[in-house]
Amino acid sequence: MFKLDPRIEKDSIFVKELPLCQLRLQNDSRYPWFVLLPRVNELTEVHQLSEHEQMQLMKESALVSKALTATTQCKKINVANLGNVVAQLHWHVVARFEHDQTWPGPIWGIGASIAWQDQKRAEFIDSFLENLSQLSQFK
Amino acid sequence: MFKLDPRIEKDSIFVKELPLCQLRLQNDSRYPWFVLLPRVNELTEVHQLSEHEQMQLMKESALVSKALTATTQCKKINVANLGNVVAQLHWHVVARFEHDQTWPGPIWGIGASIAWQDQKRAEFIDSFLENLSQLSQFK
């Protein structure tokens, strides 16, 4: 059974199960920021996934990136696996804007997160999922 | 014809052509740090690549990650496409250590790079390419 790291569980909100990954929204309204968690246990590196899983992660990352771009009209998507703090394999997909707090630097580990307001978060997720469903077979 | 961004050209050293990407070593001895550049022009986002190119990028990233891990015995691999400063699509593969300058934070935009010494760089690349060739068909 897939186990979620307690810190990831605390810092993010469940959105949807994709074929390989659990998709979660980071609870930080400074950035529209998703985390994809492959439902495999004990792995820490992308290259430890099977080749098939690596391809599937890339597909899901591209799909989330496209839907996030359509939703936010962002300037740039940042994708990354860092995992220096939380070991569980997780993949960031983040919408960046020239007016965001840390542009053009990376977002991780800088400043304090600002939780989403419930109404704004619900509207954002609804809009994102509508774009995702138009782009994908994951309806 | 594939064009390299002048800043990437200045800050990194050619290592090898892979099937999709030009592989370059960032000239910053603080981190064993490769940059993969898909030989496509005008694109800035991973999800703008064709599906086949996305899969090939993932394969080459995994291969470089494995060879870099074998070469350095690093604690963690960081992979990312940020591209907030240099627009040309480029993919980072970085070996991280608990004793490195910015651990556990990200490496980008912090402190000044320290150029590799020629002899150490040549030894590092030789060792990396030996591991790469043992792992791959790119001999």
Explain how this protein is built:
Two copies of one chain form a homodimer. Chain A has 139 residues and is α+β, with helices and mostly antiparallel strands. The first copy, chain A, has one domain: HIT-like (HIT family, subunit A, 2-Layer Sandwich). Chain A is built from three helices and five strands; from the N terminus they run αβββαββα. A five-stranded antiparallel β-sheet of chain A has the order 1-2-3-5-4. The mean pLDDT of chain A is 96. The A-B interface holds A 44-47, 51, 54-55, 57-59, 61-63, 65-66, 69, 75-85, 96, 103-106, 108-109 and B 44-47, 51, 54-55, 57-59, 61-63, 65-66, 69, 75-85, 96, 103-106, 108-109.
Q: Which properties best describe this structure?
A:
homodimer; HIT-like (chains A, B); HIT domain-containing protein (chains A, B); HIT family, subunit A; 139 residues; five-stranded antiparallel beta sheet; alpha+beta; HIT_Hint (chains A, B)
Set down the secondary structure blueprint.
Two copies of one chain form a homodimer.
Chain A lengths: L5 H6 E6 L3 E6 L6 E6 L12 H22 L3 E6 L9 E6 L21 H18 L4
Antiparallel strand pairs in A: 1-2, 2-3, 3-5, 4-5
Mean pLDDT of chain A: 96
Strand fraction of chain A equals: 15-25%
Number of domains of chain A: 1
CATH architecture of chain A: 2-Layer Sandwich
| Element order of chain A: H for helix, E for strand | HEEEHEEH
Classify the secondary structure makeup of chain A into a structural class.
Answer: alpha+beta
Query: CATH fold name of chain A, please?
Result: HIT family, subunit A
Largest interface, per-chain counts?
A-B, 34 and 34 residues
State the helix count of chain A.
Answer: 3
| Rough outline of chain A | globular
Major sheet: arrangement of strands of chain A: 1-2-3-5-4
How many strands appear in the DSSP assignment of chain A? 5
Main sheet summary of chain A: 5 strands, antiparallel
CATH class of chain A: Alpha Beta
Quaternary organisation of the protein chains: homodimer
**Uncertain stretches of 5 or more adjacent residues of chain A:** none
Tell me roughly what share of residues is in helical segments of chain A: 25-40%
The value of Rg of chain A in angstroms is 14 Å
